[in-house]
Write a structure and sequence with these properties.
alpha+beta
Length: 179
């Protein structure tokens, strides 16, 4: 068993959003002991270290990640599809915007607003000529807080694995998870 360093423990605690006091309570130790362990001022017993690590493991299990929220079926269009096809798909699916994906990789987005602002007679144009920037991408282990921050500025977030789209998350997904 490889023992975590004081820095490892501090990083894990911060990553799950626990204070030293909250971690101490979960691990059934004192807050000053947590502080001393994280500052490398004391060498804790193995049993104490195990309780701290188990408390962190348990807390990490409570963190909501992108993989927990995402829809794996990413309804999308390709850059070569016609704008008419994109509009029809948005209507069918009752979406106001769609990701544009080429060979599995997010390359842009198209919205009803993009189509309206493109002017008249754009139906036969390829999506590539009307699309906007791509939605931001995150990994499957991104936290709900990271995703929420992105959704303050974008309509959706694409979850990628190996650079390819693996899922999509919108504000509605976060709202339904919280309710």
């Amino acid at each position: 068993m490889e023992l975590p360093t004081p820095e490892d423990l501090r990083e894990r605690r911060n990553a799950v959003g626990l204070t030293q006091s909250a971690l101490a309570e979960r691990a059934d130790v004192s807050q000053p002991l947590i502080a001393r362990v994280e500052n490398d001022d004391v060498d804790p017993r193995l049993s104490t270290l195990r309780r701290i690590v188990e408390a962190l493991d348990e807390a990490e299990g409570e963190v909501v990640r992108a993989a927990d929220l995402m829809h794996e079926d990413v309804v999308h269009v390709s850059p070569d599809d016609s704008v008419t096809d994109a509009v029809e798909l948005m209507d069918e699916e009752a979406y106001s915007q769609l990701p544009v994906i080429q060979n599995g990789v997010p390359v842009g987005s198209i919205s009803q607003s993009d189509v309206i602002h493109a002017g008249e007679n754009v139906g036969e144009l390829p999506v590539a000529e009307v699309m906007s920037e791509s939605f931001p991408t995150v990994s499957a282990d991104a936290t709900v807080d990271e995703i929420r921050n992105l959704l303050d500025h974008y309509k959706a977030v694409i979850v990628t694995e190996g650079g390819e789209a693996a899922g999509i998350i919108t504000e509605a997904d976060i709202a339904s998870h919280l309710s």
